[in-house]
Amino acid sequence: MTSVNEVLKDNDKVKINYQDEIIALVRSKSSPKVVKDKLSEYHASDIADVIEVCTLKERELIYRILDMQSLADVFEYLENASELLEEIDIQKAARILELVDADDAVDILKDADPKMRKAWLSLMNKEHLKTINVFYSYEEDEIGSRMSTNFVTLYCNLSIKEAMTSIIKQAKSHDNISNIFVLDENGVYYGTISLNELIIARENDELLDIISTSYPYVYSDEKIDDCIENLKDYSEKSIPVLSDENKVLGVITAQDLIEVVDDEMGEDYAKLAGLTAEEDLKEPIFESVRKRLPWLVLLLGLGLVVSSVVGLFEAVVSQLTMIICFQSLILDMSGNVGTQSLAVTIRVLMDAQLTGKKQLSLILKEMKVGLLNGLLLGSLSFVGIGLYIALFKHSPAVTAFSISACIGTALLLAMVISSLVGTIIPIVFKKIGVDPAVASGPLITTVNDLVAVVTYYGLTWIFIIDIMHITC
Amino acid sequence: MTSVNEVLKDNDKVKINYQDEIIALVRSKSSPKVVKDKLSEYHASDIADVIEVCTLKERELIYRILDMQSLADVFEYLENASELLEEIDIQKAARILELVDADDAVDILKDADPKMRKAWLSLMNKEHLKTINVFYSYEEDEIGSRMSTNFVTLYCNLSIKEAMTSIIKQAKSHDNISNIFVLDENGVYYGTISLNELIIARENDELLDIISTSYPYVYSDEKIDDCIENLKDYSEKSIPVLSDENKVLGVITAQDLIEVVDDEMGEDYAKLAGLTAEEDLKEPIFESVRKRLPWLVLLLGLGLVVSSVVGLFEAVVSQLTMIICFQSLILDMSGNVGTQSLAVTIRVLMDAQLTGKKQLSLILKEMKVGLLNGLLLGSLSFVGIGLYIALFKHSPAVTAFSISACIGTALLLAMVISSLVGTIIPIVFKKIGVDPAVASGPLITTVNDLVAVVTYYGLTWIFIIDIMHITC
């Protein structure tokens, strides 16, 4: 991104760093009028980035110089907005909260010091408070909590010319005008017009003819998890969010969706790694410990179960110590295969509403992949480890290849079963309404460890010690 | 998404399933004119979903009934577009390829049978072929490969009225008109106007006054990895993509960005799980095997290294068989902690351009988190496993707690070192230009296993066998 990082190549490209320009501007001794005119040229996101590295004095200059709407735009991009808002005169802060998009205002208010929040709320006008209360009422996993209130509407009985006039009027305070939502005489959502269609329509066309009545929409209390895939598939600039009474409450814009997708996938990614939520660099250490500890404690407990099972085979190990060398190999491999199946299954579950038939085909596919990989790696281990034992441990060839046969077979079995477990457990969790990404990890690890240990030591016991009578 | 799934609640909400409606429409015996008029009401994404479940005969009806532009819109949403395009008359198919957005056309052509591709290309007009060649020239990791050519431009010397007339003209064939890109007399990118500003401007305002010259832009050959975070931060409807000569080649729309974010995070998610790329349900089994095998083979090799090291401690194990029970516990825990650190580090590396100081603070933070978690779990293990051995293995208390002290200490050390390794290795890989998400996993697992094994058996050897003289 050339606006922020320098372009390295030496050609015609202009090397512009907007943030440096803004800092220089703020630090210049130019008159407020000059700074204001120049500052208003920059993108609110760039100004926000600069504010985060400014001194308090420089920030105060920016607060004083920018007009209220520009300041509100900047506050929508600030990460620590509620902290910085406290630096601003309380009256002005309340006005900013009225001007930022309602979902951002709610985020700022939620993060704020309770005293400040109360003070700000008491100074905001009633109309805005009503909107903000609506947002407060949504759970974080409901799509309503992510919508924007920046949208324009039309009544369906207007002429093309009246419609255009109305849109021009609304464009002054709303900049999401690409899609226009049409209401019937009772204010109920009727359909959508794209601004393009309206612009190219002739004056004596009928407005009704350019309304798309089968345009996608979503209800404000739908779960994000349930509707996000469809919202993504439509690939629209904005999709209306309706109340239970089918009134338009807001829109989900493509920009809102980017955030939602980013957050949802970040969460799944974190969960796959055994974190209860996504972390970032600025987070306090105890917060990070708290996010990681639950899974670790659970795994420690489950690890003890595996240890107890390994304990059952102490007698086998004491007769043939060499076999413990390869325990880690088999456990690691079965763990890796399980994680691969888990990751694939979770992504598939997230992407699609699976029918029973498709679920079965997914399970079968994972089994086949596990079987193929198991056959390949099992054979590789049989030959490789057999040679390794014969050469480096100086065992007779029969002993070496008997042991490596057990390892290869255990590997094959462990891999097939791990693929199965890694597929079935998340499907079952999904079915009983538990988040598969967070719950599957520990259980799969434990089940796979147990299977691998029992197969490996069991096989060695029966085949090598009982049948072949090989001991060390 | 109510347009697809049924709404479950029993209230005023309208239960509409657009796809069922479309299928019923296609299967009805209505005249082509009626079906066409009704079909044009639906969203191209919904029609695409229906096409994927239709019979060939029904598809042929849709191909025949829809006009070319609508058909092109639908093809932009089809997953197996190149396959379905073969069902269409070759002349008509070439025309569709001209009408779909150039980046989608390239995707369809890349997936297509080489013979068909050649035939289609030979029938397309030269202007379109030129655009398509531009897209073919981008690598998959360059932002140019993701841009859309659906955008509108203006020359900067126009009056407001002339500008508006030009936009109305362009709106007929382009529907991304929210941001208008302004060119100087040589066609070089000059700045951006938002359609809002243009609409609310008065006829005698100056066009120059509403041009934002510090609007973000991106060069077509920038790496997606390098610019995606900035593109996301701007949260804009569209951002211009420039050539080396600063001409506007295309735009990255918010919808394009959703796809990019989804793909990028999907890839990282897959890599974290040890897959070389994201998989889906429809993929052939051998393709899945190929994606998973490399990591598994590598891990098998590295696992053998760990096995060799465990082999060095055979003597310790033969003297105190009980200790092998807890090997899996310590290896699993160190693996889990390493994965957590890896996941956090990769996300942080992806989100931010880290300075040396910030990298150090990340490493320190991970060490502290590892130390705290290690202390907690180490103590827990010391007490818990001590009691477990004393009660279930009927060992004397001294033996039990000596062993559990070794386990606790080994756990503490392994967790601290795993946190470190899980942080430093991805940072180093990033620095030397290797993708940290794909390369870190195997190395971290192996290093952590080695550290854990050496610490655990080493401690047992020195403390229990050499100092305390405890054997089984």
UniProtKB/TrEMBL annotation, chains A, B:
Its main location: membrane. Gene3D superfamilies: CBS-domain, MgtE N-terminal domain-like, SLC41 divalent cation transporters, integral membrane domain. It is found in: Cell membrane; Membrane. One of its GO terms (cellular component) is plasma membrane. It comes from the Bacteria. The chain crosses the membrane at residues 295-317, 371-391, 397-429, 450-470. Residues 147-210, 211-267 form the CBS domain. Keywords: CBS domain, Cell membrane, Magnesium, Membrane, Metal-binding, Transmembrane, Transmembrane helix, Transport. It is a multi-pass membrane protein. Pfam families: CBS, MgtE, MgtE_N. GO terms for molecular function: magnesium ion transmembrane transporter activity; metal ion binding. SUPFAM superfamilies: CBS-domain pair, MgtE membrane domain-like, MgtE N-terminal domain-like. Homodimer. Acts as a magnesium transporter. Belongs to the SLC41A transporter family. This is Magnesium transporter MgtE. It comes from Lachnobacterium bovis DSM 14045. The lineage of its organism: Bacteria, Bacillati, Bacillota, Clostridia, Lachnospirales.
